[in-house]
Each structure stands twice: as structure tokens, then as C-alpha cells.
């Protein structure tokens, strides 16, 4: 792997990539490794993860296989402990993806609004196109332009994603950024005095 050939340099960083045995997870792991990150590959299938790790290592990257069912909190705790033991720290965890019509246009607009482009738009096989962005307050997220993979597609089922929050040191700045980027209306509930938006 040659971080100099990548549009970003993650040398000395470590990343946990969940769902690293297939599709987008494999692409994310390979891209992070190409940028110099040491990558912890996480999924239930150790055999599939091993193949991904071997491919990354053949390209000169560093990858560790850490089988884990992320639906089991005890396994997740053990996985994080294992990664911390092997890598000493973790600098990146795969962020949430937000569907957009154009990853390129969203990335450009994000930088105009004060965000930082961590990974410029790239194709994920024929599944879609994505970019990784850091908002002005430090949170990372992905934008996803769907092709063959439109997203999760599961709702109302036990264990499926139902809510995502943002913890930020500057709610006003983050709210302005996300409203400007996605057209979201950020508002407080007049009955909630906690500051939650």
C-alpha cells in the first residue's frame, strides 16, 4: 500500500470497519488500508474476513481479522478490547451514511459550508458512489449515491437501525452545516429543556 498514492494519508491511524466481509465494507477497508491505516476487519464470518485481510496484506497493508456479531454487546466489547490491544488506539470507525443524489455535489457543498473532505467521492464497485466528510465540529459521516445498493432496506425489525444522534460541542454550527447541506430543519422541542435538537 502506498499512502502517497491516496488522496489522503492515514499513516499511524487505526480503523475498525464493521461489515468488512462483503461489498461496501470491503471497499472501505481496502481504501483505508491504501491510505496507510491499520484496519480491523469486523464481521461474523472469519473465513471471508481472512480473504479480505490476505488481499490487503498482499498489497502491503495491515489488517487484523476480528470476528464479531455487532448485534451482541458483549462481543462488541471484546472486539474493541482486542483491537485496542493490537493497535493501541482507534482513530476511525465507519460513520453513518446519508443518501444523496450526487456524492460529488454533496462533497463540494460540504466543503463550501465549512466541512472537510476526508475521502473524496469514489466508486464502490457497481453498488454506488460515496465520500467521507467531517463536519465543522469534528463528526464524520458518509454521503451515499446509490446505484445497485440503495441502503439498509430493513426497518421495524428487532435489531435494525432506528435512530442516529449527533453529539457535538457546537449545536448551532453543526445545525447550520447540516441544514445547508441536506435541507434539514433543525429545531428544539419547546417542552424539552435539555438542549436536544
Quick description:
The protein is α/β, with parallel strands linked by helices. The protein folds into two domains: 1-94, 3-Layer(aba) Sandwich (Rossmann fold); 95-197, Signal recognition particle alu RNA binding heterodimer, srp9/1 (2-Layer Sandwich), CATH 3.30.720.110.
What would your notes on this structure say?
- This protein is α/β, with parallel strands linked by helices.
- It folds into two domains: 1-94, NAD(P)-binding Rossmann-like Domain (Rossmann fold, 3-Layer(aba) Sandwich), CATH 3.40.50.720; 95-197, 2-Layer Sandwich (Signal recognition particle alu RNA binding heterodimer, srp9/1), CATH 3.30.720.110.
- Helices cover 31% and strands 23% of the residues.
- The protein has five helices and eight strands, in the order E-H-E-H-E-H-E-E-H-E-E-E-H.
- Strands 3-2-1-4 form a four-stranded parallel sheet, sandwiched between helices.
- Strand 2, helix 2 and strand 3 (62-67) form a beta-alpha-beta unit.
- The longest helix has 15 residues, at 73-87.
- The radius of gyration is 18 Å and the shape is globular.
- 31% of the residues are buried.
Amino acid at each position: 500500500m502506498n499512502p502517497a498514492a491516496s488522496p489522503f494519508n492515514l499513516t499511524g491511524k487505526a480503523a475498525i470497519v464493521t461489515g468488512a466481509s462483503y461489498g461496501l465494507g470491503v471497499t472501505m477497508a481496502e481504501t483505508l488500508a491504501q491510505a496507510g491505516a491499520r484496519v480491523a476487519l469486523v464481521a461474523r464470518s472469519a473465513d471471508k474476513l481472512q480473504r479480505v485481510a490476505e488481499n490487503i496484506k498482499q498489497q502491503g497493508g495491515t489488517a487484523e481479522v476480528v470476528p464479531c456479531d455487532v448485534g451482541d454487546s458483549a462481543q462488541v466489547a471484546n472486539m474493541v478490547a482486542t483491537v485496542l490491544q493490537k493497535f493501541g488506539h482507534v482513530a476511525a470507525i465507519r460513520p453513518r451514511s446519508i443518501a444523496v443524489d450526487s456524492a460529488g455535489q454533496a462533497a463540494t457543498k460540504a466543503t463550501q459550508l465549512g466541512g472537510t473532505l476526508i475521502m473524496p467521492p469514489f466508486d464502490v464497485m457497481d453498488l454506488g458512489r460515496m465520500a467521507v466528510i467531517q463536519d465543522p465540529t469534528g463528526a464524520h459521516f458518509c454521503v451515499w449515491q446509490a446505484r445497485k445498493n440503495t441502503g439498509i432496506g430493513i426497518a421495524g425489525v428487532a435489531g435494525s437501525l432506528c435512530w442516529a444522534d449527533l453529539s457535538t460541542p457546537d449545536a448551532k454550527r453543526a445545525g447550520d452545516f447540516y441544514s445547508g447541506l441536506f435541507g434539514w430543519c433543525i429545531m428544539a422541542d419547546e417542552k424539552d429543556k435539555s438542549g436536544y435538537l
